[in-house]
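Q: Hand in one record:
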Amino acid sequence: MSTGIGNATLAYARVWHLVDVRGQVLGRVGSQIAQTLMGKHKPIYDPSSDCGDYVVVINAKHVAVSGRKREQKQYWSHSQYPGGFKQITMEKMQEKTPEKVIEKAVSGMLPKNRLRKVRLGRLLVFPEAEHPYAGNIIKRNDTKIPLVTQPIE
């Protein structure tokens, strides 16, 4: 006979987090976002279950990096055709599509398994402060690392 106590559906409920990355270091904020997407901040965390939350990232165009990474870091892709190798610097990618910089950083910090694409689907990145999910946001993350969540009133 099962004697379950408590409401497990509340623990699995997905909360919407808002993260403003203006002036924050890409790697530090990326690891915090990856942990939120995985659900490691919840007491019911299990690596094989998908219990993470939604994360809305704003001001992706204004994210900071340390050192000379903006000029030196290379993103590459290959089309699998001869001569299909493409390289782009972080500086050019941030001008062209600033969302991709954060998505690639967070993607590299997530476990490489079947849940990776599902978790990345809950990451919503916007280059500026405007976004259509203002009504869904439950928690706003502080601008200082570590990201402390506090309810919005």
